[in-house]
Each structure stands twice: as structure tokens, then as C-alpha cells.
Amino acid sequence: MPHSTTSSITVHRVPVPEGSAIDFGAELRGADLENVCAADFEIIRQALYEHQVILFKNQQSLSPKAQYNLTNLFDPPATGYGHGKTLDAKRSVLHPDLKTIPHQPQVQVIGNGPVAEFEGLKDITLKHPHHKTFHKHAISEEDDRENTRFYRWHIDAALYDLEPPYVTSLMAVKVPKTQYMTLRYDDESNDKLQVPRGSTAFVSSYKMYDLLSEADKEFARTTSVQYSPHPYIWISPAKSRSNGLGMESDGLELDYSVLPPIDESKIKVLPMCWKNPVTGHLALQVHPSAVQKLIRDDGTVIDDLKEVREIVYRMQRPGIAPELVYAIDWEEGDLAIFNNHGVLHTVTGSFLPEEVRIFRQCNMAASTPVVGPDA
Ligand SMILES: [Fe+2]
Predict the structure, then answer these.
(1) Percent of the chain beyond pLDDT 90?
(2) Which residue from 119, 85, 88 is spatially nearest to 104, judged by alpha carbons?
(3) Which residues have their alpha-adjacent CB atom under 5 A from ion ligand 1?
(4) What is the CATH number of the domain that holds 107?
(5) 71 alpha carbon to ligand 1 midpoint, in Å?
(6) Which one, out of 172, 215, 263, 350, has a CA that is 20 to 30 A from the CA of 223?
(7) Average pLDDT of every residue of the chain
(8) Alpha-carbon distance 156 to 163, whole Å?
(9) Burial of 163 (0-12, 13-18, 19+ CB in 10 A)
């Protein structure tokens, strides 16, 4: 990193839509992301952990290598992609969504439509994830162009063997002209939200924690989550709630006997609360689709899957209220970096097969374990 004691980067809160209560998200201006000096990175890192989602505009020229280098600054010893090689598993619910850039394997291409050539990938067809492949109940065909759902609220993490990446970067390379869609929760509420087509939606897991009752905060601080081994294969036959916040419990999860070999030492038990390394705030940070058991500090184990999911759902649902969702209106050249230990995020929207959209995503499995509430 070149040495410099001053930085020209400035931090600006993102404009908040009327009626919104979001308290995170910032745009950083004046950055030269090909030449980030120590003083620049200090500002970038501070902004990331204070604002959770940071956005740089007009980064069209940033190469996949430079995107990797920038993402890697947050955790220099971490060099391998966040999901390792697990995406190769054809049965994983993640498999159709990501294609690896051959010369920069920590960077994945996601998007929609036919692409003749992109970064060494030839004649690929990208497919924007559609909720009908994951949700138990889908929006009807006739309503589908104007209406959408949160596809799957998640943390970017393998949740087996590998540690959750600190940050993920997302670069909007090609974005079809967007119109707003109506995002329907289709749950016990009548909640709806207007979102740009193909928006990535974020919520703050710090807000999610702050909204809990004192008793639930205490529960969250003293409980760990055990994730299933090979979680994305385990849930592959199961279906999601209509608001994308976890699974329906119909007993469809795969039996361990048909999962790839399980190494008990690689099963992840993570705290329910993850501490922000800069502010010290606690995030209620749980991947709702992959949870399997809750383990209390006193040794009690809650292993009834339906009950586990109900507890997590009750705690997380207030945090995805419409006024708390930051839905990015992507423009070509936008580079977002988000605190993967402090937000949940999800794809939204749907595209016609011929609508071409290209994004580059980069994250690395962290070099250290998650920091819990007692650290
Ligand atoms: Fe993601």
C-alpha cells in the first residue's frame, strides 16, 4: 500500500427515501480505488463499520484484480473465496447463481441473460435468482412482472468449515434500465415496499438487535446457533417463507446420510450476536435459512427445527420492516462494499431472459472466527 498521511476521500450518508427509517449506508467520494493508500483505507474501513454499506460511484474501470485487492485489504490473510469450492456441489441452492472468473477465483459473476464474453468466461447465460424456485408460494405469472419478493435474506457464508467473510464487494457492471416494482412480503403483514427492479436489499442487524425486548437481547447474547453441515445442500428440497426470512418447516430437509461426508469438527456453532470491531455494537446476526439448533450458554439445546426457526423468525422479523430496508438503486459503475457481519441482504426482482445484467461479487472466507458479545 503506498504511504500517505492524508486522504481525499469524503463520506456522505445516502439519501433516505421519504418515510424511511434506515440509519446506515454511505457514499464515499474522491477515492482512487486502484491506488488506495493507508490513510485512504483507514477512512474506508471506518466508514464501512460505521455505515455498514458503502458505495463508490463510477468505478467502471476497476478490474477484477483491483476489486479483489480492495476487498482483501479488510482481511489481508484471507485469500480464498468465501464458499471455497462448495459451489461445485450441483445440489447446492447456491450453484445456479454464481460463475467464477477464471483468472480471479475469489470474484464471481452474477446477473442475468446471455453474455458472449466476460473476463474469460465465454458464451455464458446468467440467471437472476427468481423467488419461484425457492419460495413455497410464488407470485402468479400475471403479477410477476410488476411484483417481487425478497428472494433470500442471508449472510454471505459457507457456514460449514469456512469462516464468514468480513466484507463482500459488489460491482454493477451492466444494469438494465430499471423501473420500480412492488415488493410484497406476503406474510402475516400487509407490508409492501417499492424497489428498483433488481435492487439488492439490505437491513441492519444492529437495528435488528436494538429492536429486541430486554429478555430477547439477553437470550441473544447467551445463545449460539448451530448450522447444519453442508447447509445449502441440506435445505435444497425445502422451501422458503414468502418474505425470504427463513424456511418453512415441512420436514423436507435432506437426511445426513445423503449429504456429502460430514466432518464433525467443521460444523459451525456461531454466536447469535456478532460484535462490530469499530463501534462495539452487537448485531443479531443469524442466517435464517441454514439454522439447525440453538445452544444456550447453560448447555440447553433447542433442537426441534420448527421451534428453532420460529424463535429466530420472531426475533428477526421486526428488523426487515419496510422502513428499515435499504434497497440500492444500482447504476452501472457502482461498487458497494458491505459489512457481512452486520447486515443481512437479499436479491429482489425478476428479469426477462434477454435482459442482460452483469455484477461482480467478491468475498473471502475470514482469517479469524466471528467475534461474539463477550469479547
Ligand atoms: Fe449474498
Answers:
(1) 90
(2) 119
(3) 156
(4) 3.60.130.10
(5) 15
(6) 263
(7) 95
(8) 10
(9) buried
